[in-house]
Records
---
Amino acid sequence: MASRSDTTAPPLSRYRRKRDFTVTPEPSATSATATTAATSRRNARDLGFVIQKHWASRLHYDFRLEFNGVLLSWAVPKGPCYDPKEKRMAVHVEDHPVDYADFEGTIPKRQYGAGTVIVWDRGTWEPAGDADAGMKAGKLVFRLHGEKLAGLWELVRISKPDDKQDQWMLFKKRDEWARPLAQYDVIKALPDSVVANPLGLVEDREPKSARPARGADKDPDLSAAVRAPQPAKLEPQLATLATSLPTSGDWITETKLDGYRLLARIDKGRVRLFTRAGHDWTAKFPGLVTPLGELPLSTGWLDGEITVMKDGLPSFSALQNAIDGRAGQDIVYFLFDLMYLDGQDLRKVPLWSRRARLAQLLDDAGEPLRFSPDFEAPPAHVFEAAAGLGLEGLILKRREAPYESGRTQTWLKAKTRLRQELIICGFTARGGKAGEVGSLLLGYYVGDKLHDAGSVGTGWDSRTAQDIWRRLVPFERDAAPYDVAVAKQRRWSRRAAGSERWVEPALVAEVEFAEWTADGVIRQASFKGLRLDKPAGSVVREGGKTQPPEPVHDVKITHPERIVDASAGITKADLVRYYASVAEWMLPHLKDRPVAMVRAPAGIASELFFQKHVERTSMPGLTVHDRDLWPRHPSLLSVDTIDALLSAAQMNVVEFHTWNSTVRKLDKPDRVIFDLDPGEGLKWNYVQEAAVLVRTLLAELDLQAWLKTSGGKGLHVVVPLNSRLDYGTVKSFSQAFVRHLAKTIPERFSAISGPSNRVGKIYVDYLRNGMGQTTAAAFSARARPGMGMSMPVSWEQLTELKSSAQWNVQTAREYLSFQTKDPWADYWSTTQTLAKAMKRLR
């Protein structure tokens, strides 16, 4: 940290002196006024701020304010807090270059500040008064506009002139944003990087009173427009498929129209229409040219989508007929963006303002031009309504976003159904007769490889079937064009072998379907139309349909102050909030698996009891399975949703233990678990060595294994299986494996339980692989002093582990906020058989 005596040094000299830029990835600060990606995105008059979460020798937060060409910097050990009563120590350190605001990464060992850095918050700030005078006086008041922090804050110097450290205090000023720490801890509530998980400005999320009124959209602000000649060509902005709806940020929500994207260029009355690929389709739509030419502008670029309305809803098949000339007068052009207008490039103007100006232009325009409306209701409500109406989905756009050509994250598409473009790779005749297609054989690209996507055989009438036939015949070829064929799909289809007629992969079809199979082909497909506007080379597999967001889980915790673990001061509120924070990681390990729960109504120092069935106190949200699932046993339970997880935690559940099988194949385990349980007093390095030896033997048996801490004393080595063998067979294998291990290395391993049999040894518990046996789930807390938890780790991390309880309820979520890779990412897609392994152990 900087000493007070260094304050007269040249700008950034202390920063450079502390670092070896041939080793550290941090910005080298060759120029104090370097322009960063972050600052270039802001208005030039804005000052930026960043808070970086830094896990060095200990976790702390680096608070930085852009001023006079540098980042004024303070190290805040406990981080910021919205509670004005909480005064947080902030040590003024050396100025950093403005480029540092974008830095995320790992500073190598033996370098200054060695450790991992993430951007915890970012945004802009405004000094309340003269910032220069405030810094000199040691009293700086300012307003933050961040993704996590907002409102008025203050930094006050508390050190004396001759102190070695320049110590300040950071605290929240009392305003509408102030909140008691007991009610809201922003550090725990929002622990992750805003680069990896952008939130949008907190002022756009809450409180509602701080959000700009929608009425302001009627008066566009075009101050960011740039005088420029009209572009001859313009590539459209494209939306990214959203796996879930955004729950924060300010978004403009529009209907996803079932049509063709079309850009209009107007130059002194001359209108040209372009597809998203840049093809001139002006001649196809004479009915649009005249009304576009009559708009009150001289030059412009407009963006929109054409469709045909049928029964009040967009219809893709009706649009196909219209394009073919059968009903061209029915085409409607929905316009949603304005990129250029009368000598001004508007692409840097915020979206809401571009749309407001576009709406003014379309005020007096009649059919077939329409303004694409947006909906002020929350996206989740609009999504539900769209699904109910049978619409394709929604387009969500950040309200303040510029117009950027290409696919971006500021435009999202949310699909209510599985639907996408696929390449036509072949066809068969209807009824074996030439002239009409009976099915289309489809594909998509994975990199430069053409992948089989299955087939579609419904969704067209006789006239369309004849039209597709005529279009495909000129492209015929002798062999299938696939680089990756899926034989299973060929068997599923009911066409006779050899009836396929293959074509060059040149034409694109729009297809709706029920699901993707594990082999990457579509099921229960229906043809919607040809996509003559999209090149085949751009067709890749998209994800699934968008999932509606989970509700906000603000659980009402009864007796939140109740102590669960007196040794660490962990309360019931701490435990429930911990499970809420790790639910995203934990639920895949819990979902559809019978569960046994350890409950601690009076804390972990008092009586504990297991609950496996529903006859004890019920917990809302848990899935109760039919008694027939496991005859002669009470109904089993599973924790399948975040509501169920938090309901259990609210009912004093500390630990979650799961079966090795799912309810779908209850008697066929899909994993083997080896629980490495050390004898009393055995050193940790022996447990680490034992895990390596177990993994080595498994590798010799051609079995891959994954590792996690138990949260207690040992480690869990987990081997995924293909769930074809019963419990008896899998348990017999695990027993044979452990006996072989103990026989081969008797000085390290024991195959017999009991304290006397494992003195100085590791007992590898194979009994957990029997029917009805359970093991602590990944991310489960443990009912032991300190409340360690079970953490999935990579094998490369094994040597760095200090104990099995390295992470606990209070520290696990902070650790996870720094992780960019899931060490178990490949676990879920790995299936293995024990056949060869069992033969080798005999």
---
Amino acid sequence: MTPTAVQLRPEPLSPADVVAVARHGARVEISGESLEAMAASRAVIDALATDERPHYGVSTGFGALATKQIPVELRAQLQRSLIRSHAASSGAEVDREVVRGLMLNRLHTMATGRTGVRPGVARAYASLLNAGITPVVGEYGSLGCSGDLAPLSHCALAALGEGRVRDARGALVDAADALAEAGLEPVVLAEKEGLALINGTDGMLGMLLLAAADLRRLVSTADLAAAMSVEGLLGTDAVFAADLHALRPHPGQLASAANMRAVLAGSTLVEMQKNGDHAFTRVQDAYSLRCAPQVHGAVRATLDHAESVAALELASAIDNPVVTADGRVESNGNFHGAPVGYVLDFLAIAVADLASISERRTDRFLDKARSHGLNAFLADDPGVDSGHMIAQYTQAGIVSELKRLAVPASVDSIPSSAMQEDHVSMGWAAGLKLRRSIDGLERVLAIELLTGARALDMRDGGVASSKSSPVLTAVRRAVRTVADGPGTDRYLAPEIEAALGLVRSGEVLAAANAAAASPLL
């Protein structure tokens, strides 16, 4: 169940908390323990504010300008100038949930009491989130090292009452006007605070957490779609037997095989292939059917690893310099995004392959030579009608795009800041392309489900006379609430979008779980 409020403490956030705030608008509260921790670390910074010795982020310039000593009277201006100059993103506007996730992750780092930020600055960020004010951030501007600099700077700029934001209604307005309407005062930054607001992997981490939540749902949906394709193509469930998969006991593979067994349990069509007049005569099904648990299971394993990295990031306090537990202020390299960038890329590879095997199953339905008795392209009158021919083209186009998006971003690096920042992670770019990959996978799976439901209706005459398993009958019934059964050709794009809605909302998975003996893994 999605929480309606999330309290920030020095302890790690949960992935569910980040998704609740970023995607569902849950409120943010800051615990008294965190406020005390922030006040204590701020006292350390205040003690250095008038020190004549250089302290990075307090009395020096930034990056390649770190050798420049800043006079005491200019140190507040130093922080404002940092935010204004670094708010330099460009390109298409980043989704609201990405910006909210980024802000929450940075706020949580403040709440650990390791950044030297005053409690009032943290309260200002919480107020922006709770008021539904979302800074406008362009897709370009982060190299994934020294923090997601430009994206985080736009968020800090909004807290200063500058730049452009989306208000709670989604209108594009000046930040000063949005703050005034919400009854909020702009922040005036003190020493180190500007740097502390922009030095973290918060954007790429937020995108990882959102993508992982989506992929958990989608890999189970893929198991469901694959089982529907096995049934619709008159395949066998014998290859999903538990003892066969125990011979290669990868946990993800075991989970996907168990899901497919559960979905196919009680299928009259499957039983007919085993024991009926037309008993199963093929020695083996094609790989896209027979090997679905192995491929889907590898996706699950990759996702498990990605989630373990995300958990470590959520337990981190990333800033440079950082205020240590014993009161030292130390420079470090914890802002480097390599750990997050790598797994974002790993997931893009897994997503591309999950979509690829789904498209191959769909294509088998449409080929009269491989569909075992179905009309060519599932058309009502092949030749007059084209059926789902072009729906598969759409899948193929998406899968081709996903293969390009699977090319890793994290293997690239472009030096910046006069060679001071000479190796960067490109994790932000990896996160953005993974989001596009997730969107494509949802569409590919929606088309497989739509096609599978049509094929099964052509096999048994429709849901009312269903020979499917109880689970797949429930899924077919859900699909039929948004798309008509077989017939002459009609405008297909709205049906694809409606099926996408079932996948994206989790409704199709919920329909399956309601009919299953126990929820799918």
---
Amino acid sequence: MTKFIIRIFILVLSLFTFIINAQIKKIGVPFITNYSPKTYKAASENWDVIQDSKGMMFFANHFGIMQFDGVRWSIVTQPDNRSMVRSLAIDKHDKIYVGAQGDFGYTIQLPNGQYQYTSLVKLLPVSEKNFGDVLHTIIRKDEVVFFSHETIFIFKNNKIKILGSKTSFDDFFEVGKEIYVTDNEKGLLKLKDDKLVPVENGQKFVGMQVRKIFQIKNGLLLFTQKNGIFIYTQNQIRPFVTEVDHLLKENQISAGLQLSDGYFGIGTRQSGLIVIDSSGHLIQHIDKQIGLQNEYVTNFKIDKEGNLWVTLKGGISQIQISSPLSKIIDNSNSETKIYCSQIYQNKLYIATDNGLFWLNWEDYKNGKRENVHFLHVSGMSENVWNVGVFRNSLLAFEKNGIYEINSNSAKAIAKIDGVWKGILVPNHPDLLLAGGYTGLYLLKNINGNWVYQHKIKGFEESSRIIETDKEGNIWIAHGYKGIYKLKFKKTFDTVTDIQFYNEKSGFPSSLFLNVFKIDDDILFGTTKGVYRQDLSSKKMIPQRALKKYLGLENHIRLLKADNQDNIWYVSGENTGRIIEKKDYNFQKEELPFRKLRYLYIPGFENIQTTADGNVFFGTQEGLIHYSAVKNKKYQRKYKAVISEVKCIFPKDSLLFSSRYDVLPNKNGSHDKLSAVLAYSNNALHFSFSSLFFDDAEATQYEYWLEGFEPTWSDYSLQTEKEYTNLPEKEYIFHVRAKNIYDVVSEEAVFRFEVLPPWYRTIWAYIMYFALYSVVIYLIIRYQKLVAGRQREQLIENQEIELLRSRAELNEQKLTFEQENMNIMRENLEATINLKNAKVASSTVNLIHLNEILLSIKELIGQIDKKNEPNVNFSLLTKINKIIDHELQGDKQWNEFEEIFNQLHDNFMQRLKATYPELTPRDMRLCAYLRMNFNTKEIAPLLGISVRGVEDTRYRIRKKLQLPSDANITEFILNF
């Protein structure tokens, strides 16, 4: 019952302590991550810092606005005049307002990741464009205030109101909902209704060089550059006395910040960062000697995780002020590997690989660190494996033996070749058992002093891990062999019984076994959880209670109980504690200790606890302190981001990036992101990160290309991923992060589509279909043609057969018909010959008749009318006419023409049709020429003289348009 009451009291006390101490840790130095100009590859000077709604960090750098996404640094934009950026402010829509040197404006992020800067100086009249650095930028409701020493610019409704000074302004302050300005002539002024209104007794501030103002109860707290801190209340200014006045006055205040827990952060020009409480007590002083990379603090802000980002004249530092863990370091701390720690007589001792060191713990934890350093304990310079308090004596166990420590000196009490640790023998508080490299040693306390007795016989194994049970048995773990259980003689000089346990005894393995004592119970750490010995079977079995919290999969490297009945453990890579709650319920706590992963010395994990709640972890990077005074939220949501997307071919063709001047859209003309890619761009490179900055390098990522991969990848530290030869398809790239506290981020996605190659486009398929149709049509047509030809061939063959059969039958008929045809040809030839003979005969008779008629006509013409008076000339004339009529008559000619055309293929019609200008006489002459008559034969037929025939031939030649050398008779014969 008493134990239960005590536990309740301790629990209430711890809760009360937590409530009143929910502040920045005063003990130790917070973890600091420094980012040098070589890391972020920009100018060394940084002047301001902001964080957007997603969690992205932005810094006012000499080269422009610099962005940090937890993995990569990049300059995202610059003012139009390429000047340094001095101040930043961000609104709820993530529009960033920028104050630069001789310029101010705003920037927004475009869909393709780029940031576009817009200058507002164009809204100013020419006379007001000559100003210097815009040192402060503040957003208030619907207006933005830009401050320079020469002018105050108030931007509202796309207009700028200008407030000037007769001399110059000194500084500008946002205090709660009010804005104050110090004027070098008028003193302290208040900005009200876009006007500068003097504050009562504001003249008192002239020349004070106020650099920061905070609202306090009934007044203002003023940080001055060279004169320290003052309180302004009831129109009176009085100094605010602090423990660091000399530091503030000597090193000049450059910036100030009121922290969330009521403390004040003070940035100096020459001494880094100073944190004080509301009473002026020093809480932290972080300078270059203990981790800050530069002494000149220009500004600082707290991010969403509670980390303090400090901008410096030379770099950027992140200080994890919200962590319950801190490093116990000082200016002279050079040791690294810590094997053990112990507080004794208000001194903190640490056992290292370079000897034993100590410092004044009371002064250190109370902030008096200027003259508090780790001092070397003389006489111990080798590996000190352990240090502990035994009956009010501090003993150190070292490579060369056992030493008693008195303040800063060591006295050897046992020169032994290597001792690991010591442990009191149960029921014998005056006996100390020491485990050595090659066995066990006994020490005895005589008159308050520990005296070496002897080496215990019968056991020669290395005894680095040693515990005792309530029966007085000694349990020793050998990491490579197993567990030994020893019993001694009553004189403690000889081992009387040795029992050995290994894999055959029930352990999952004989390697890496440990032995621990929790609430008087002996427990064993194995590679598969915590084991205990079953009393009945003597076999090793899993410990049921701890199995629920530590499982059976992790290597249990350390178990240790503190005086509040919490069980501290190192399981695998995780450190934690199992806290006992009401009704013997327990709670497992690991998240605050995730930073300790991979920091322990393997095999020498050590945790030291004190009655007042201090916990020390010895690591390879020094001594780390823990106190549960910070209410840090480990489960805070955060975002994963895709930093950059680029096509590998063509080389580094960027699709999405926030890096300055890498995408061709400086004027915003390409403000719509195109994620439709040609097939030639089907190889992509993704860069990603998470907006979680607490141990960002330990954040792990998993990714999934939906449409290409079946599921998420395994978590890894990889922050880039490439895909090549992606088929045409729509894809979604997913990525999410898991921080050191195992909190999974909101996922980031990038949607894109890879178009098919030209030969797999819809038009190509239409063309393929058309070609296929044509081919099918041609094949069908060809088959039809072949079938038709075959059918025709069959028909032809059948016809041939039929013709053959008929040929034989018709052969006689054909012979008969041939004979008939020959007969008909002979008859026809006879008819033609007959007609030719008739024509020839007619022609001859006609020629003869015409010759007679011409002779008669000639004789009639010879009768002389005068000499022949008795002749009847009228009768002669009539005879002449008859003769002329006969010579020119058409009766014989018509018969001749009919027969002639039949014999000569319508010669007359063809000639008349071709040469219509020929007269009937000409036609007759041509017919006689066709019959190959000569001129003398033709003359009688035409009833003209030979000379007349020649003239007629000449006229016909001209009508036929024959050249002079052409033979008219040959032309007529060939016509």
---
Amino acid sequence: MRQTTKLAALLLAAASFTSAYGQTTKKPAAATKANSFALPYEKFTLENGLEVVLHEDHSDPIVAFATVMHVGSNREKPGKTGFAHFFEHMSFNDSENAPVGANRKLIEEWGGQRNGSTWNDGTQYYEVVPKDAFDKIMWIDSDRLGYMIKTVTAEALAREIQVVKNEKRQNYDNVAYGFTNEVLRKNLYPADHPYNWTVIGSLPDLQAATLADVQEFYHQYYGPNNATLVIAGDINIAETKAKVQRWFGEIKKGPAVKPLAPRPAGLTQTKSLYLEDNFARLPQLQLVFPSIQEYHRDTYALEVLSQLLAGNRTSPLYKVIVEEQKLAPNVGAYQYSSELAGEFILQVRANPNTSLQQVHSAIQEGLKRFETQGFSDTELARIRAKIETDLYSGVESVLSKALQMGRDNEFGNDPAYITKAAKLAQAVTRADVMRVYNQYLKGKPYVMTSVVPKGQQNLIVQGAQLASVYQEKVVAGVQNEDVGQGKEAVFEKTVTKYDRSEPPFLATPLFKVPAIWNTSLANGLKVYGIDNREIPLVSFDVTIPGGHYLDPLAKAGTASLMAQMLTQGTASKTPAQLEEAIDLLGATISVNSTNEEIRVQARCLARNFAPTLALVQEMLLQPRWDAAEFARLKSSLATNLKGQEANAAYVANQNFLKLLYGPNHILGTPGSGTLETTAGITLDDLKTYYNTNISPSGAAVHVVGAIDQNTVAAALKPLETKWAAKTVAMPKQTIPSQTLGGNVYFIDVPDAKQSVLYIGKLALSGTDPDLSKATFANTLLGAGSSGRLTQLLRIQKGYTYGAYSTVQEQKEMAPFVVSTSVRANATGASLQLIRELLTNYGPTFSAVDAETAKSKIMKSNTLVYESQGAKLGILRRISKFNKSPKFLEDDQQQLMQMSVADFQATIGKYMPENELVYVVVGDKATQYEEVKKFAPGRVTLLDATGKPIK
């Protein structure tokens, strides 16, 4: 896990005073600069050693909790790898005073969000909830930290082993390049180094985990004296201190955990390894140099170095590899620092059939060019200009603040360490950059991995040695791995001074739709805005109807390529000059094509709104149409499309949509196109699309941030006068008759460790008045981990890492979709369970379910619209679907009026199981017969492009 806000330019001063709890409390003073940003906090330590950081933020009626445990995979033993992450999963199961499953189910039903993550050095648990659930999170969090170990059972252990194994399969074993990190760690670090293994661990180690292991790990590392608790949001400091003492103060102190000293990798010679990847379609080369641990001042110079080497078009690695030798669509350089050591990474995912030996030579040439040519002061200025924006973006939400402060307190002993990081990053000099280059990269040993598609050993770097990795063998049948919750543990509750039963809700917070202003310009452009002063940033976009929907069918991908071309310079600026102009403002600007829009999106400091908008206008109205850039983009697109063939979820989704929309509807083809449809696209095609479809008629500007309507209006005047309106024809495409319900389609991915399932049907348009009802009806089925799909397939059965459903929203008729990735040998059983669940969902929907859904939706509204991006989403829905500015309140009224019969009727109309299409992408050799049993006589075998195989 990287701390991306280290490059942050904000100076916060700190003052000290004494806490009522006896320890020193630090509280940064208010910043004095007009444009500065304060992150005040109070810190105290309980007698049991728990360090607590409190931060007030009354901008929204929500509260975030972050508990950071100072234990990660670096505390594991060989043969028991993956245990820190596995224990994170176990911690979400049960505790002494909370009901079974409460941690995974109730928080979402309270309108909140929760999760956890583990990395090399630590584990963090976090929640963000409406403030009425404040006491409930105090209860459930403290119970997890102090009172969970007695509830662990052998059955729960066995179930969670399967869940974590499914996570490993989904994120590592069943994806391209998933074994690269394992190869790297085995060869970069000695066998006895805590970073010699991956955080996820190995499948055999996970399978061997025992109850005794869980208990030993808890007692050794999960004491409150090895943790930081951060509470941020709409809180009262004095009241919160008292509640923390009540709920967390009685937790027993754990044994002292001896700190680990920094230990660099100690690599003495370069190692070159290769691996044939079953899923990869593109060759990838990675060079990893040992560097330095986090919080060391060299990390900031190394981060700047990474940007100078590969961060933009003028960087030497990009110039050599992408522009001159045309070996790859991009190149990446990253500095990754952990508690004990660091890694400096160079990575290139090359074009198809490209020699990695040639890529390696190009990297060496790029590095040599850096040594001889150096870099300009402008390059340093560009990096520094982005620092302030990065800081504000990194602490935009109360949750992001809580997590940042928690990690920095636990590992840097300073909740506001971000301030020191800012000063150190801004202080990086030319001499610092060259010093760390010479110290960590020039002439130094590294680990190099050549990962190539299966059967393409000819592409590896010369002399590379075959890497050794463990690969699970796929077998048919569930193999007695059908696990469940099992019986509840029998134990004697821990005696406590305070009552630890569930507290009631506090006063219900009211969700308030932010004040929205709107106007229309003379050229037909509509403007919508929200003045929001929480951070000194502005997020905005220009959204133009059309996008992929206006693509010629035979040249699908035209809109996407055209959108990318708008970022490749302007009539008066080369691509490099445009990039530099954006960077020097500390801004980001992107142009994307969606199914139904072209969107120019930007984010900048509020004071730089006008010049950033001027660049957006220049890009939009004065495209460069550079032939060389078009050729580069087409080559890059071909590479990316080839790479997508390795993504089983992408293959499943695209074939699912092709079946629903048919071959003659544009939405049955990917928005980025296919290798076939994009091959013939010319630069003239892009110009034709632009001249025909890019118009302010029907378009809208959406603005959210620290800016008022008058300032926006003044900045938009040039766009109003220079962008002339024209009529754009929006054709009506024919939706084919939906006659495939009940059919099952199978796509073979040999040796796949999981099967990807996509299930659904075309349901309704975003303009349909039933859209909100359908969304509400889906809430308990698959909207989050508390939904029945995840509760059944993950919590009860251990078949998957997660299963979800959604009702999509667009002007064209959109699908209702159920999707998941399940353990390969549980494919047939999972399909049957999903069928039964969907069949019974409507008929069994009860009055209790209706109230649960209503409560969950109403309360979650207090936090789902917190960020600038979420507020932009409100404005986009208003403009696209011609909604009232108060549509969210109208939706809530509609929700509260829904009866059980309304829920059941909506489910029956838009989610009927007998009308759904099933797509399965998995290992045919072991799973095809199981799928045929599920749907006898109705299974069609397809290739990856959707063509039937006889």
